[in-house]
Write a structure and sequence with these properties.
Blueprint lengths: L1 H27 L2 E7 L5 H12 L5 E7 L4 H7 L5 E5 L8 H7 L10 E5 L16 E7 L6 H4 L1 H6 L2 E5 L11 H11 L4 E4 L8 H19 L1
Parallel strand pairs: 1-4, 1-5, 2-3, 2-4, 5-6, 6-7
Helix pairs in contact: 1-4
The structure holds magnesium ion and zinc ion.
């Protein structure tokens, strides 16, 4: 079964590099988030809101993963944090090696929280660990409630599901009860937070969850 062997080797090698990234992050005391969703679910907007909420408390840096362009990196840089853009040149996810290559572009000795915005895709970003503490995913209400049953790995791997664009609930076909139940069937531990990045609803709960995770990580190192 040579095909299966090749896939396994790719994932093994990615895990090895991710382990190296993780060791470096531990040494530097950096909490790392891998943020994933479909295109247009609101990743960059959530990154911007998160930076604004936590800027006085933590030193934040961002790695932006996109197939091409630097639009999102430019948006994030306006918030006054260091940011590196990874262009995957067609690749539909970022992997541990791309993150490792991007790290020299960041002042790691002056970073407490590193946010990685993955390429917009509900499939393979969940397969490639990058050395993160948490995978965080966004499902937005216009995408529909069928996503957990179609892309279970993403929901299984994530610590949190943010249901974004909750302000659009009256206007879209989104069965939130089904979305939550199907997501929890993929991952009973999944934390679910309803958010509207536009109105600000739920952002406090998100920031509180993230702060708790960062503090738990820092205490574990103390
Ligand atoms: Mg984006
Ligand atoms: Zn991919």
């Amino acid at each position: 079964m040579p095909v299966i062997n090749v896939v396994r080797q790719v994932l093994d090698s990615n895990d090895r590099i991710a382990g190296g990234n993780r060791a470096l992050f531990d040494e530097k005391g950096i909490y790392v988030m891998n943020l994933m969703s479909s295109p247009g679910a609101g990743k960059t907007t959530l990154v911007e809101k998160t930076i604004d909420a936590l800027k006085g408390r933590y030193r934040i840096a961002v790695i932006e993963g996109d197939i091409q362009s630097t639009h999102d990196a430019e948006r994030v840089a306006r918030h006054g944090v260091p940011v590196v853009q990874i262009n995957t040149g067609g690749g539909c996810h970022i992997d541990a090696n791309m993150v490792r290559e991007a790290l020299p572009g960041l002042p790691l000795d002056e970073v407490d929280v590193l946010i990685n915005e993955n390429v917009g895709n509900l499939v393979c970003p969940a397969e490639f660990t990058i050395g993160e503490n948490d995978k965080v995913m966004i499902l937005s209400t216009p995408e529909g409630a069928d996503k957990p049953s179609k892309y279970p790995l993403m929901f299984h791997e994530s610590s949190v599901m943010i249901i974004n664009k909750i302000d659009l609930l009256p206007y879209v076909e989104f069965d939130i009860v089904k979305a939550k139940a199907d997501a929890l069937a993929c991952n009973p531990e999944l934390v679910i937070i309803e958010v509207s990045c536009r109105t600000g609803q739920g952002l406090d709960a998100w920031v509180e969850w993230l702060t708790t995770r960062v503090e738990t990580f820092r205490k574990g190192r103390a």
